[in-house]
Amino acid sequence: MIGVRETVLIHELKRQGLGVSAIARQTCLDRKTVRRYLARGIEAPRYSPREENERIAERFRSYLLGRLEAYPGLSARRLHREITPMGYEG
C-alpha cells in the first residue's frame, strides 16, 4: 500500500494530463496500481482499532514497583537482569 503523499502525486500527475502508463513509469508503480488509486480517489487512510494485548512486563509490575520503592536508584538494566530469570522474555 502506498501512502497519502504518493496518492496525491498520482492524482496531480493525472490532473496535469499524463496517462496511466506515464504515471506508472514516473512513480515506479504498476499500471494496475495507478488505475486502482485513481479510481479510489484521494481519501484518508482508515485504520482499524488494535486489539488490547497484555503488556509483556505487566506480570512483573508489582515486583518492579516494589523494588523501585525499596531502592529508588535502581536502573532499568538492573531490573531487567532481575526479572529475566523469572521468565521475562522482552
Structure description:
The protein is mainly α and 90 residues long. It folds into 2 domains: 4-40; 55-90, no CATH class. The protein is 53% helix and 0% strand. It contains 5 helices and no strands. It has helices at 4-15, 20-27, 31-40, 61-70, 76-83. The longest helix has 12 residues, at 4-15. The mean pLDDT is 89.
List the helices and strands and how they pair.
Elements: H1 4-15, H2 20-27, H3 31-40, H4 61-70, H5 76-83
Helix pairs in contact: 2-3
Family: Belongs to the transposase IS21/IS408/IS1162 family.
Domain HTH IS21-type: 5-68
Keywords: DNA recombination, DNA-binding, Transposition
Q: Which features does this protein show?
A:
Homeodomain-like_sf; 0% strand; rod-shaped; 90 residues; HTH IS21-type domain-containing protein; mainly alpha; 2 domains; transposition
What is the chain-wise order of helices and strands?
HHHHH
Number of helices: 5
How much of the sequence is in beta strands?
under 5%
Level of helix content? Answer: 40-55%
> How many strands appear in the DSSP assignment?
0
> How many domain units?
2
**Structural class by secondary-structure content:** mainly alpha
For the terminal residues, how far apart are their CA atoms?
A: 30 Å
Q: Main sheet?
A: none
How would the global form be characterised?
rod-shaped
Taking pLDDT < 50 over at least 5 consecutive residues as the criterion, the unreliable ranges are none
Mean pLDDT: 89
Output the radius of gyration.
25 Å
InterPro entries: Homeodomain-like_sf, HTH_IS21_transposase_type
Domain HTH IS21-type: 5-68
Family: Belongs to the transposase IS21/IS408/IS1162 family.
Protein name: HTH IS21-type domain-containing protein
